[in-house]
Amino acid sequence: MALTDVWFLLIAILWTGYFVLEGFDFGVGALLRILGRDDTDRRVMINTIGPVWDGNEVWLIVAGGATFAAFPEWYATLFSGFYLALLLILVALIGRGVAFEYRGKVDTAQWRARWDWVIVVCSVVPALLWGVAFGNIVGGVPLDADHEFVGGLVTLLTPYALLGGVTTLLLFVLHGAVFLSLKTDGDIRARARGLAVRIGAGAVPVAAAFLLWTWLDHGADLVTAVLALVAAAALVGGILATRAGREGWGFTLTAGTIVAATAFLFTALYPDVMPSTIDPAFSLTTTNAASTPYTLTIMTWVAAIMTPIVLCYQAWTYWVFRRRISRTHIPAAPVPAEEHA
């Protein structure tokens, strides 16, 4: 296997890890004002992801850095062509992090409610836009002979890309609801389980439509067909397992859905990394977008050494914070000074 193919595979793995881990973060945030009936419920929800959400974003940073180093032409075209969309995602990720930190700084219901809505919006926006972005990457964008993007923001809002956005949004919200049913206890666990089943009823037909459209237009072969079927089966199985109260299996299967779906998209994309809708000859591929062999060789050695360390550390983090959380674990909010008078 050529080093260009190795790094295409590694980048696909990094994006897969990001979508699986950050996907339930987005889902929990999006459901904050829906599932959380009061401030204690919402604090329980935030605490389920509190120890891990920032670590999950490391996968995005590494995926972006790996793309920059291994396929600089792809990185340049992607980040210049998708500038506004990626800027919105960046602002949303920053806003969400700020909201997590500032939500509890002032002990008033109005203050917390404002930051809750920031968390909701800043979770929904990237969950939607990542699907739009990858819909355009797989579906193709207008690239000229110099591999420069010659469209605009409206160019990216195709029906196929928008369907991709709705698909990722529903899958991540479903993934988050299943995660909440796995990580909480009591009434909120039961409500998260019921909500996951209802969300799943909408996610199944939308995801099936997106997978079928992608397969027919961009990757109609045996491998992508198998991956699409695995994703569909895992999605249905995850919903049924959650409904039956087997949240561990439900979470494993919804994670498997995201893994299979992401693998399906990257397999349909290969050997292109950014197809051109103007002329296939103008497309960026793993060959013409890659760095030099020397650069890829050094990167491969660094990745071989550092990746196992990072994976072990993150696995240890999840093991430490594996327990369920309930309302009894949330300390009572301090009584404002004026109420003591």
UniProtKB/TrEMBL annotation:
Its main location: membrane. One of its GO terms (biological process) is aerobic electron transport chain. This is Cytochrome bd-I ubiquinol oxidase subunit 2 apoprotein. The chain crosses the membrane at residues 6-32, 74-94, 115-137, 149-174, 195-216, 222-241, 248-270, 298-321. GO terms for cellular component: cytochrome complex; plasma membrane. It comes from the Bacteria. It holds the Pfam family Cyt_bd_oxida_II. PANTHER family: CYTOCHROME BD-I UBIQUINOL OXIDASE SUBUNIT 2, CYTOCHROME BD2 SUBUNIT II. Belongs to the cytochrome ubiquinol oxidase subunit 2 family. InterPro entries: Cyt-d_oxidase_su2 (IPR003317). It is found in: Cell membrane. The keyword RNA-binding does not apply. GO terms for molecular function: electron transfer activity; metal ion binding; oxidoreductase activity, acting on diphenols and related substances as donors, oxygen as acceptor. It is a multi-pass membrane protein. Keywords: Cell membrane, Electron transport, Heme, Iron, Membrane, Metal-binding, Transmembrane, Transmembrane helix, Transport. The keyword 4Fe-4S does not apply.
